[in-house]
Amino acid sequence: MSDETTSEPAFEGWGATDPKQWLGNMTLSPFKPKEWDEDDVDVKILYCGICASDTDSLKGAWGPLNSDPSEIVGHEIVGQVTRVGKNPANGLKVGQLVGIGPQSDSCGECQTCKNRKENYCSKPTYNFKNTPFHRGNGAGSMSRGGFAKYWRGPSRFAIPVPSGLDPAGAAPMMCGGITVFSPLEHWGAGTKAKDVGIVGIGGLGHFAVLFAKAMGARVTAISRSESKKEDALKLGASEYVATGDDIKKTAEAHAGTLDLIVCTANPEELPVTEYLPFLRPEGVFAFVGVSPKPIVVPGGPLIVGSLAIAGSNSGPPDGIARMLKFAADHNVKPWIKKWDMNDINGAMLSFNKGDPRYRYVLVNTDNGGEI
């Protein structure tokens, strides 16, 4: 079905024009979607997770908020395709269930795009921040995220959701899931990295425990206090280590027990060096949480242990597709709480208080999403 046979849906979304507005005062407004291109799809949004990148954007952390009509974010989208252009990617058809993550487009011309690693493109278009499209009829149009009724964008970034996966549970995988799946997959959790540590048991950390366990790794959950121990063990961790304030002393007591650490915590200053004793020779410390202050690490421990410190940037469409298939095949089920999208302001207030255990999912009940 092409654009010639499908009427335009009503595009409207929940947004803010002022950083003070996001916390309890977001409003629903109509918006103009990007100009149609023949590789685009329209998606009726059923579910959309809430992620800290969304709230950071609404706070103004990524720059001024859009005022035409408002900053509409949301980048953990699952919905149903309602319109397909003449040149769809992924074999998409009307009625198909798809997921859309942080990225809604890339330039398509650079070497990283040609290598199908679009998450490294230097001209990305995002769903967690209203940013311009750079190509086709839509060049100059602003992106809109998933706190909305409908999403329009290039079909390359709309990933089919496997039939065995709960659609609501798939939503937070589109960012929270792929953020940790990528480094776990890249560094060989369960194969090369038999023993994996997860630092920080929050929204990302809970996904990391679930995926690392499903990959066959022995998982050690690492947190400052004992408060998340019961949850971490239920999620699949074999061991729980509460470091307290003396991380280095705790790490030395567990010296050489881990092949890989995925750090999901994002404190003001990340004390990477204090975690290094956990690692065996040739171990890797990979971080996905962004700490404001620079990371300072002396070269000695890295050289002596042949250790590596790495970051990880979400994942490309192909990586998201692999993650969704893996989650369906291994019955990975995130811990979520659903909120009616019409109560987005209540959800934001609760999110801001740190209530989620461990991901919030907005449900578009008006579109047929199920609470």
Cα-to-Cα separation, first versus last residue: 30 Å
Low-confidence stretches: 1-5
**Rg, please?**
21 Å
Question: What's the CATH H-level superfamily name of the largest domain?
Answer: Medium-chain alcohol dehydrogenases, catalytic domain
Largest sheet: 7 strands, mixed
Structural class: alpha/beta
Q: What's the total count of β strands? A: 17
Distinct helical segment count: 10
Task: Give the helix proportion (percent range).
Answer: 10-25%
Give the DSSP E fraction (strand runs of 2 or more residues): 15-25%
Mean pLDDT comes to 96
Summed up, the domain count is 2
CATH class of the largest domain: Alpha Beta
Order of SSEs: EEEHEEEHEEEHEHEHEHEHEHEHEHE
User: Could you say which overall geometry the principal axes of the C-alpha atoms support?
Assistant: globular
Topology:
Layout: E1 12-15, E2 27-30, E3 40-50, H1 52-58, E4 77-84, E5 97-100, E6 103-105, H2 111-114, E7 125-126, E8 150-154, E9 159-160, H3 167-186, E10 195-199, H4 203-214, E11 218-223, H5 229-235, E12 239-242, H6 247-253, E13 258-263, H7 272-275, E14 279-287, H8 299-305, E15 308-311, H9 317-329, E16 336-340, H10 344-352, E17 359-363
Helix pairs in contact: 3-4, 3-9
Q: What descriptive keywords fit this protein?
A:
2 domains; 23% strand; alpha/beta; Rossmann fold; Quinone Oxidoreductase, Chain A, domain 1; 371 residues; seven-stranded mixed beta sheet
